[in-house]
């Protein structure tokens, strides 16, 4: 018996195999390290973005601060008692106007005198009242004891000798050095107010005998000399039954507000007829409340009324349902406490200061309806003057001292209510959510409500997902489960290639082509949604009832190709019927019918346009992920279901969909994140109107589009600039929360329907 041949032994430790294992181990290690480093880098990058946004946003919510840097005796006390004070732009020089008709200019740091000006007031005449005009104009008016008024302007000449800034203060007389006579009988003017506009001014006052006097002047420029002459015009004011205590003329020169001794505000309408000049009488507070101070807020639209209870309220004129003006109490601020001693307004923001006789000074902001800062002067306050940039404060106390404060109050207009709540802005009939960050003048009240932007973001995403989700998911289900492999290899890359189309192109087409096309063929657009599905169902019914030998001419899984001409024909027919439908059902103009009959406003660039355009952009994302999830369902599950007698539809709904649900849910969430962060389509196809209206025919403005539009024009470090970063932070947090929730749900679905 012959011996069996020896079986060859396998050597797994040859030098070549050892080198191969080492190389493969090294590659695995490099791949593992690279993937891990990439993942960590993404996490680090996102974390850095988070903290950078937080760094830019944090100053908005930093508390205001103030520091007293100098205290000195009131400069030139021999010139008289201070009745009005102010500072120049840089806060290096200040002035005080005295009751003896002197203007003392001094250095704000040490109180050293720069200039002492004697006003052109006749001997024996004293200053009986004073009022500030528009703060930006640097003009103010003095009421004199002889019944006349003198308009002044504090000005400053700035030079740079030896590269050192030198400020030389002086007084100008913009309407001449001669005082304007208001009281014909020469009674002292105990209260006065001035209103300025282009080419005109009006001065109103209360005389010693409680009479109201007023004059309006038209400015005329001499053709040869260039001098400005004032042409007076009498203004007839009624005599009130109750003694007036304060008087204010608003810049538009229509309304005059008179505060009376019994705590009422009389509104005088100078445009009304003589018998109707009293527009209304409003009581401030309860029966025992009296008015301690009245002043105009920046812009002249609102008046601030401080009362004997220590609180301050904001009032402005509002149109009622009959298109009549009424004075409305808009908001009341936290009481400063005690008796109010002095007040001043900021010159570039809707802020103001109130001081009481105990030395407490509070900084308020009207838009935010908040108290920004509280400081103590350690003595009863006599006078206040906030610098034009609101970063320095001059305080005169009753003990003959001047205090100079540095103020850090960069963003007082920000509060939770201003960002997310309804705010009653000047000129509006009611509180509302408004975004309007800039205007043509400094009197503007910034409106920083993020609510319409967040609403617009969700509205755009909602309509985009409404269009994209059913189409993408149903298309992915059919492609992955029913379509032939050959056709699938053509369809899937084609749809994924749609994602490479720049969104700026989609926005361009949506804004400039689809929006006007939809407006002209609005009935046809809605007819497409009805006619096309009917044609598809009708074709499916006919096709299923055709003889089998005809249906076999089309290979299995290629049936969808036959629907292409059906869909094209259905769309063409809907557009062809659009004029007929418009005449038959909408009186020839569906847009006017929607506005007049249905009460639905229609804008050319609206949510329907955005939903179609952005839905087109989101479809590839949802389709691709959903298709992969469905196609990845193990074949033995579907084959086992079919073998047990389930139909293909039952297998789809009861086996494939539950198993692929984690992937489908992820696809929808990723698509939603794509829609929320979209910029160019909503920027070009929405009209960028920051309104809160669910109407599908109205536009919107989204957070991302707002950032793209306004960031290049915002001043670095300004409130507007940081608010835009806050919008980005909100968008970041929203995406983070949605993704976290999506991952939580996905894991739950994965655990529930996991395949073992």
Model regions low in confidence, pLDDT < 50 over at least 5 residues: none
Structural class: alpha+beta
Give the percentage of residues in beta strands: 25-35%
Alpha carbon gap, first and last residue = 54 Å
Helix content: 25-40%
- Summed up, the helix count is 15
Any idea what the radius of gyration is?
38 Å
Largest sheet: 5 strands, antiparallel
Shape: elongated
Integer average pLDDT: 88
| Record field, number of beta strands | 31
Explain what the structure shows:
There is one protein chain. The chain has 15 helices and 31 strands. It is of the alpha+beta class. Helix 3 crosses helix 10 (607-631), helix 5 crosses helix 10 (607-631) and helix 12 runs antiparallel to helix 15.
Spell out the key features of this protein.
elongated, alpha+beta, 27% strand, 31 strands, 5-stranded antiparallel β-sheet, 4-stranded antiparallel β-sheet, 756 residues
Detail the topology: elements first, then pairings.
Blueprint lengths: L14 H43 L7 E9 L8 E6 L5 E6 L3 E6 L5 E6 L8 E6 L6 E6 L3 E12 L6 E7 L7 E2 L7 E9 L2 E8 L4 E10 L6 E7 L9 E6 L5 E6 L3 E6 L8 E6 L7 E6 L5 E6 L4 E8 L5 E9 L6 E6 L5 E6 L3 E6 L4 E7 L4 E6 L5 E6 L3 E8 L7 H5 L14 E2 L10 E2 L2 H32 L2 H13 L5 H18 L1 H23 L3 H4 L11 H24 L3 H7 L10 H25 L3 H9 L4 H30 L2 H6 L17 H8 L8 H34 L4
Antiparallel strand pairs: 1-29, 2-3, 3-4, 4-5, 6-7, 7-8, 8-9, 8-10, 11-12, 12-13, 13-14, 15-16, 16-17, 17-18, 19-20, 20-21, 21-22, 23-24, 24-25, 25-26, 27-28, 28-29, 30-31
